[in-house]
Write a structure and sequence with these properties.
By secondary structure, this protein is of the alpha+beta class. The longest helix has 30 residues.
């Protein structure tokens, strides 16, 4: 005669459903904390802002090299009004500042740098613009700015 025993064996191995769910919940909480701490969207925005700064400094250096080679004069198209800079491959530079003198024969720049969001965001740049603006200040120095910066105001004045 065989008797069925309904008492579970104390030697069984494995995890209960509640234990598995608890571990999964803890892992989810830890993962969300790590993702919040890393914040990839802020990291990407910071890297684009750094690229904007590098672009503005490159433009400033190219303009000053042009000025040094041309008896202290800047390209003729720079005005006292803050105006967007024209792209190198633009069809027309009407309404924007033409700095093609910097890219002629690739003497100072190969191409005029563009805002990192120009191809992605239609508000970052005009049709023929780079997203970077330039003006001649009242004191005679140049001011370059990136108006679509994401985390800070980026302006280079020299």
């Amino acid at each position: 005669m065989y008797i069925f025993n309904n008492i579970p064996n104390k030697n069984t191995k494995g995890f209960t459903l509640i234990e598995v769910l608890l571990v999964m919940a803890l892992l989810a909480i830890l993962a969300s904390i790590v993702i919040y701490a890393i914040n990839p969207s802020k990291q990407l925005a910071d890297s684009r802002d750094v690229q904007r700064e590098v672009d503005l400094y490159s433009l400033m250096q190219a303009i000053y090299q042009f000025s040094a080679d041309n008896e202290g004069s800047y390209p003729d198209s720079i005005t006292v009004l803050e105006t967007e800079i024209c792209r190198t491959d633009a069809v027309s530079c009407s309404g924007v500042i033409d700095l093609s003198a910097l890219t002629d024969n690739e003497t100072y720049l190969i191409t005029v740098p563009e805002d990192p969001l120009c191809d992605v965001d239609s508000f970052a740049c005009s049709n023929n613009g780079t997203g970077y603006f330039i003006k001649l200040t009242a004191s005679g120095s140049l001011a370059l700015s990136a108006t679509s910066s994401e985390n800070k105001v980026i302006t280079v004045i020299q």
